[in-house]
Structures are given as C-alpha cells and as structure tokens.
Amino acid sequence: MDGWNQAERLLKRYNIKWKDITIQHGRAVDSVARQIYAPRPVDARSFAIFCHEVGHILGYDEVGSWNFAIEQARSFGLPVGEVKRAIRVYLFQNAPSLLPHFQ
What we know:
The chain is mostly helical.
C-alpha cells in the first residue's frame, strides 16, 4: 500500500504542513501552527499514524484521531482492515488502554 499520494491530498485538503520525523529526530520542534511531524506514509501503519496526527491538528482527541485515520483510509479506498490492524498493533505497543475502542 502506498499511502503517500492520499496523504498529500489530505495535507492539501486541510492546509497542513508536514515534516518527516526521520529528518527532524533530535531537533527542536518548530512552533508552526498546523504542522505535523509524522512518518512518510508507505504502508498501513505509517498511513494510520500520519492521519492520526492530522486528526489532532483538526481537534480530535486520541480515540477520535484514530477513528479519523480509519475514515480517511475508507475515503481514499485503502484497505481499512490493514489500517485497523496497524492501529491495534500500534496501540498494543504504545497505548494499550485505548485498545478496547478498536476491537
């Protein structure tokens, strides 16, 4: 799954700037409004994380941002099942208390 084309459309749709965290790692974060630091979307996991960060810019909480990621995958015709699995794996590793929201 190459989610980069869809991610670029998402950024343009919501007028958001993006910086790749692999480039920015270890540097001070700029205080620019509507800017996200997220991985370049190349698979279901990175697309989900990317959309999750966009969701935060748009004002969603943690659960809302993950649901936003699922909605975006669906709207772009990406494999929603893959995105949901990627979200569950990410949450299992980083925020297990949120897992009940995504079973």
